[in-house]
Amino acid sequence: MSPSHDYDLVILGAGPGGYVSAIRASQLGLKAAVIEKDKPGGVCLNIGCIPSKALIHQAEVFRSLGELKEMGISADLSGFSYQKVFAKSRRAAETLSKGVSYLLKKNKVELIGGRGVIVSPQEVEVNGGKISGRFLLVATGSRPKEIPGIPCDEKQVLTSTGALMLESLPKSLCILGGGAIGVEFAHLMNAFGVEVHLVEMMDQILPLEDGEAVQVLAASFRKRGIGIYTGTRATGVEKKGGLLSIGLEGKEGKSSLQVEKLLVVVGRAPNTEGIGLEKVGVKLERGFVAVGDYYQTSVPGIFAVGDVLATPMLAHVASKQGEIAAEHMAGGKPRPRLDLRAIPAAVYCEPQLASFGLTEAEAKREGLQYKSFVFPYRGAGKSVAMSRPEGLVKLLMDAGSHEILGAHVVGAEATELIHELLLAKSAELLPEDLAAMIHAHPTLSEAVMEAARGLEGWAIHV
Amino acid sequence: MAERILMIALSPTMEAGTIVSWHKSEGESVSQGDLLCEVETDKAVMDYESLNEGTLLKILVPEGGRAKVGEAIALVGTPGEEVSEQLGEAGKKEAAPEGRAPAVPPVGTQAPPLAAQAQLRQAGRAKASPLARKLAAQRQIDLGGLSGSGPEGRIVMRDVLGSGGPAPARGPAPARGPAPARGPAPARGPAPARGPVPVQPAAGAVKAPAPPPASGDVLLPLSSKRRVIAQRLSESKLNAPHYYLRADVAADLILAAREQLNRGRAEKVSFNSFLLKFAAEALKRHPRLNSSWEGEAIRLRGSIDIGLAVAQEDGLITPVVRDCGSKGILAIEAELKDMVERARSGRLAPAEYTGAGFTISNLGSYGILDFTAIINPPGAAILAVGRVRRVPEVDEQDQIRIRSVMILTLSCDHRVVDGAVGAAFMRDLKQMLEDPVKVLY
To answer: Could you tell me the residue range of the domain that residue A56 belongs to?
Structure first.
């Protein structure tokens, strides 16, 4: 620790970017402090990833009622209380938030409750006093974006925050925004019997994912009765006798929906205002912090990671960036930036969807010589044995070098299966290596092996 | 032999502990499982149960004293055992200053030093990722000539492609931002999960893929010869501590001798043959300059085998004339002539270009004044010969005379040849070249 500063590293925000960076810094011998105005763990643990996955898990348990019925079991749903489901999700969030506090303490990181504002390249003002650090790290995350003209009261018009804090289910829900968050809520609400309408402006829900993979998901949603409106946007919202009337405009013209509640999940905005960035000269671009190698901002000694950057707004992205910044500050030589093509995306609805790298559309757009292969889940016996036959594994490789360009998995456990493929990509393994490795039978992972074999021209089970 | 009782980690995160109280005193017997002492750690006071049997011979850390995990706190053995030696060791450990936080663990991936990389190559199979291997095979790039920037010095794709960036040149990242807002109606942003991914590095977060190679660049695949030259000369420069001795040699007499020899001869004897012969004579007098560093010993060679550096189309080679000490200039010339011709067209046998104990390199014909050469293994020295030039000189009678001079520069491996030894060789070589008759005595 430098005697002229209180800390080696002062971090604004204890989310996945901030707390991971703090712990890594501490492991490397730096004295770190994290300033958090709310609960440790940030949005992810408290009002994002974790509670949503807890709700989704319970939704899956609830959905298995269908399979229980097939066994001749009838269930008495009269005692069902969504409040209990909600409470469980809060318990999961609280447990993990406490866990983050424990991890910070264990690693001797100072956790300061309060709202920090940067006042100079090495000083942060918090709770009426100043603390100094050799390095500063901005990890203040993001907040839900709202649509101008459609104010969110978190009672009837919700953002993801309000939706995760619902203690009772609406009868009907319109979701504006067909990205991962909108899709997950659509799945979750529909599972508990809510009438769901999912509206997306682009031509497909999950617009950034591979079209073929998304089609499987969309078909599954439609079969369950989730209304999907692509190429459609909201034109206005009116309150009409306790309900909301949502004006829509799509390819077929105008229409309107009457629903009890509206969920607006059209993106997230970086929290870069009011923390002193402009005053100290940190350069912003369209509201995001501009950074170079090692996530250094335009002001030497100030770093930024996570949702405040214009990189994908994912917890694991923030964590990785935080690790790189910390390793650099400690004098190490990490790779200067994470590989954007090796970031796994995961959507936790059912069937799950996970991917990394190029979609086929992108490969075409870039004019690459590529080969792709789609292996249906049904070809892997396990999927049929566990009554989850819908899904596919799609792989793309460079036609010449066989470099893995992209992978898209939709189906049960997709978010776990993706990692075998991601490891192959990161270690520069080839599809032939995946094809050659013995995979246990019967597993869903065999679909990965077969997709690789398919690229090589010799898939066996399709 | 008395056994040292060490402070053990009583909890996974324990680094040091303070002895709160000893439950055994010196001279007391100890069985396995007996409570030895109570230790206060960062978390709590814990019992330290004995893992050893015997008699507690000496308490090294008293109550209230602190010991790091791994340090000795007591000695256990049979009564009367010699403990002073152990005490000395234990004492040293205690005297060690209590360090700060543990040393910063190695972080990130760094290419191992050159020596380790050389070892990887010498293992006969370069460590490379499957993708790198495939790319190299497709482009006929010799993996052995590449150095790897991946983990543990592994050769990865970017090393093969030669670009410095983390991603192969593939043009700009695809546009992933939101579709442009349409009119005053509320604009809806992109799917929230991924957020906007910038196209240009102006946002700063994304490094643009490496640009395509500038026009005019040509990527030469490495020939085995190039690889060998690169490897051997790098090793020589790296491992042998080179130093250099320069001498200006008056060449009038030796040139005259050559002229006389060549008078009436259809095939002229080259100057290089003279250099080889005179070098051989100097080596006879200074055998240390004709030796090799062999790690555990220095090999003084029995035969004077001198190599002459010869330029080839894409490289160089050193044909070796064996046993120069016993051969006359004419014999040396005959051999050289034959080998140099074959060297230029790459038709030398390995036995003809390896194993020179001493090497001569002559760049005089290129007009080079002087230069320093890299020692050609397995030798310990190499002689670099510059051009012969005419210079004015002032003699004993204060008269200006024009003389021929040339600069010789000797590179020596200081592991084998000390400065005075090299200098003595150069002195004698110079004297013989300046006054050839001196060879006779």
So the answer is: 7-144+269-340
The answer to whether the Cα torsion of B243, B247, B251, B253 is positive or negative is: negative
Which chain A residues are within 8 Å of B167, Cβ to Cβ?
339, 341
Rounded to the nearest angstrom, the minimum Cα separation between A403 and chain B is 6
Same domain? For A170 and A235 the reply is: yes
Q: Tell which of A224, A241, A266 closes a domain.
A: A266
Chain A environment of B188 (Cβ under 8 Å):
147, 176-177, 201, 233-234, 266
| Dist CA A19 CA A21 (whole Å) | 5
Is residue B176 over pLDDT 80? no
- Are residue A208 and residue A294 in the same domain, yes or no? no
The alpha-carbon gap from A354 to the nearest alpha carbon of chain B, in Å, equals 12
Interface confidence, given as ipTM, is 0.72
Q: Do A311 and B206 touch (CB under 8 A)?
A: yes
Chain B residue whose CA is closest to A31 = B101
Question: CATH topology for B3-95?
Answer: OB fold (Dihydrolipoamide Acetyltransferase, E2P) (2.40.50)
B residues 194-213 lying closer than 8 A (beta carbon) to A: 194-198, 202-207
pTM for this model (two decimals): 0.59
- CATH, range B113-165: 4.10.320.10
- Residue A362 has its nearest CB partner, among B109, B174, B205, at B174
pLDDT score of A3? 64
Q: Residues 263..292 of B with a Cβ closer than 8 Å to A: which?
A: none
A428 vs B129, B178, B195: nearest CB: B129
**What token pair was written down for A201?**
């402006």
A172-228 pLDDT tens trace = 999 999 999 999 999 999 999 999 999 999 999 999 999 999 999 999 999 999 999
Please judge whether B203 and A333 are an interchain contact, meaning their C-beta atoms are less than 8 angstroms apart: no
pLDDT digits 0-9 by tens, B292-337: 998 889 999 999 999 999 988 778 889 999 999 999 999 999 999 9
CA angle B310, B315, B321 (to 5 degrees): 30
Instruction: Tell me the shortest Cα–Cα distance from A130 to chain B, in angstroms.
Output: 26
Select from A200, A290, A368 the Cβ nearest to the Cβ of B203: A290
Do A182 and A67 have their domain in common?
no
- Counting Cβ atoms within 10 Å, is residue B231 exposed (0-12), middle (13-18) or buried (19+)? middle
The CATH-assigned architecture of domain B241-440 is 2-Layer Sandwich (3.30)
Angle between helices B419-434 and B252-262 (to 10 degrees): 50
Question: Which B-chain residues 51-110 have CB contacts (< 8 A) with chain A?
Answer: 101-102, 104-110
Sorted by where each begins, the domain ranges of chain B are 3-95, 113-165, 241-440
In the predicted structure, residue A258 carries a pLDDT above the cut 90 = yes
Out of B130, B171, B196, name the one closest to residue A310 (CB).
B196
Q: Give the residue-averaged pLDDT of A375-380.
A: 96
What's the Cα-to-Cα distance from B423 to each of B171, B305, B357, rounded to whole Å?
60, 21, 18
Number of separate domains in chain A: 3
In whole numbers, what is the pLDDT of chain B averaged over residues? 79
Is the Cα dihedral B265, B266, B271, B273 positive or negative?
A: negative
**Any alpha helices (H) in A331-376, and if so which ranges?**
360-365
Of B142, B252, B323, B414, the active-site residue reads B414
pLDDT, position B194: 43
Q: For chain A, positions 406-425, list CB contacts with chain B under 8 A.
A: none
Q: Are residues A12 and A101 in the same domain?
A: yes
Residue A150 lies in a domain: no
Q: Is residue B210 within 8 Å of residue B168, measured between CB atoms? A: yes
pLDDT, position B179: 38
Please give the single-letter amino acid code of residue A457: G
- Tell which of B11, B110, B131 to mutate to test the A interface (max A CBs under 10 Å): B131
Please state, in angstroms and rounded to a whole number, the distance separating the CA atoms of residues B19 and B40. 6
